[in-house]
Amino acid sequence: MNLQISIEKSKPCEADLMESGSVGIVKTRYYTFAHPPDEMTLESGRRLGPITLAYETYGRLNSTRSNAILIFHALSGDAHVAGRHHRTDPKPGWWDNMVGPGKAFDTDRYLIICANVIGGCSGSTGPSSIDPKTGKPYGLRFPMVTIKDMVRAQKELLDHLGISQLTAVAGGSMAGMQALQWAVTYPESAAFCIPIATAARQSPQNIAFHEVGRRAIMSDPNWRHGDYYGKEPPVDGLAIARMIGHITYLSDTTLRLKFGRRLQQNQKLSFSLEPEFQVESYIHHKGEAFTKRFDANSYLYISKAIDYFDISSGFGSLEAALRISKSKFLVISFTSDWLYPPSESEELVRALRAANKEVVYYEMPSTYGHDAFLVEGEKMSRIISYYLAHAQEEKLGDFQIGTQPLS
Amino acid sequence: MNLQISIEKSKPCEADLMESGSVGIVKTRYYTFAHPPDEMTLESGRRLGPITLAYETYGRLNSTRSNAILIFHALSGDAHVAGRHHRTDPKPGWWDNMVGPGKAFDTDRYLIICANVIGGCSGSTGPSSIDPKTGKPYGLRFPMVTIKDMVRAQKELLDHLGISQLTAVAGGSMAGMQALQWAVTYPESAAFCIPIATAARQSPQNIAFHEVGRRAIMSDPNWRHGDYYGKEPPVDGLAIARMIGHITYLSDTTLRLKFGRRLQQNQKLSFSLEPEFQVESYIHHKGEAFTKRFDANSYLYISKAIDYFDISSGFGSLEAALRISKSKFLVISFTSDWLYPPSESEELVRALRAANKEVVYYEMPSTYGHDAFLVEGEKMSRIISYYLAHAQEEKLGDFQIGTQPLS
After folding, report:
1. Domains plus CATH for chain A?
2. Residues of chain A neighbouring B284 (CB-CB closer than 8 A)
3. Closest alpha carbon within chain B to A260
């Protein structure tokens, strides 16, 4: 059973030859657990089961089963981190610039694992899944999940794969929250924790932006209190939620450089309510494209899980929560990220240091805003490769040379 | 006709006695012009008429008719700047902290005038007004208006009031855009121009936020392509637009101080899709309250007017546009304003200086975000009072002592 996780990589294929540094053609797998009556009890107290997790792996597990890195995904992500599903797949996985032979998460050295979160809509059990009790999609009968519930489900998957010790847990945005949660919930399990472009708790501003998006979905008459499966889905509401999100993922600088005040096809103003500026068409396009691949109820549930996130919850302080972890930490933020600004990473780093954790902090110069965690592959790779190569042997105090000092 | 504008202030009333520094009980007046066939030709080339402007005045015009200050209002504002309409009026006008005896815009010295913009819904002609051609509300048959159209309409009002020379034009946010536009379109008419918390042109990020709000309104089935008058209006869409706007008006700091991650009534998480955090209830309340006082079509039209704004349009550069003006400028920004950040005021100030204009710039420390232009009355008053008192006699180079240097 465990050996299956290295099969795909061992067959070179056309994509391998075409794309140097690619993991090649990959396949999503599925693991189902928590079969009734042994459902998983969630933080809310409600029970969920059976639970299926969709997951992908890249690279090979070493003989001591100790070289795995668990990568988490962000709000709209999925298990498909790297490679392509088919030869004609137009796009590779969402972190293909970070995962592959010779890349930051080097599949020549590590086995990389990523699973779609519970509550999601890309193969794992979520509100669009069939509730075995009714034979119909859960809709709002799906229980609310938290970041902790998400990582607990993924721990079940690792147990299934026979992996008890991880080299690292890593991820950006909501995925960074999962990495932090993992380091606290399973304190002995990951040598390194790499939270990127994230925070130790969701800020009220971000909660507010999420709530407007949720309101847009729930105000869409097609939402039908979540029971829209098999009918016209609430695409208008979901597009609006995504448009709001998308603005917060970019920086003012990106928008100025990419669009400025340019009009569509450089035409004159039409003085109409149609999109006239390029930036308007862009966010419309992003909103509409999202509705073709994402479930509106999953957006509600996952955004709620993010809003609930506060690693200090139940501990009284960030320091008290983080003290539990035995991981070493590499914290990365981006200068132009205003959704999870460097100040929030600094708060996390201060708490980690107060808890006597070994922590390296890197505030990365970037103009890409929050999206930097997806697009600054080259810069992140240099840092993460070096960190993973050296952190096991030595203290990395000097590693901070050239980074922004933490006030 | 002209004398009427000082009548109200000359009758002390109960409110005067109750509220020191108040202009007391005030009345909205109306002026109608551009009667067909002499409609006003708008920037779009379309014609609008008749046009009614709702306006209020506070203070008295001096014998040389030269002490008037024209104050503009922002997106959701109206002509009711100061005082109360009735003794039992629960709230005074929106800039009551700035306009009154002894205040920044001192009604003992100046006659203050403010008119509701065209396109608005508070007494001036807008999409909810009756189109005399059809006897029905304009809806989308109302022509698109621009900031320049707004100030041109207000110039008609000033001509009607017999005021050709203003002491100052002033305003925050969209009102600052009108002040700048006035200074360029009527270059000889205002001695001082005071744009606050604004920009020389709307940024792509702000256009994007506006466009999401418009999309929310236009996706609401009750919007009915703008023909909802007499029926259920698109309150869900308008509330969402306002919620987005409201988040952008506040600062992250304000939200942290005011709400943090506190739950409603400090209860436990309910794990539901209802608002659970105080910040969620707050923006819901703000969104819903707005729908009771504002017209959704006016929101579409006025937000478009803001998006169109670029004072350099037709001139090739900011400097070339601003060079025309004969006004002196006092530019004020707020450190925590991320909707119209200090960097945008700095761009304006650089262009003004390049155009050899006399300009004083003050970057005001504030945690209130964009809303600072409404709530930092005391700080703004000190600056504006001093400026208006001294700028007529002397160069104000030393005035910048204690302000943030302009990089």
Report:
1. 2-201+309-400 (3.40.50.1820), 206-305 (1.10.1740.110)
2. 211, 215
3. B204
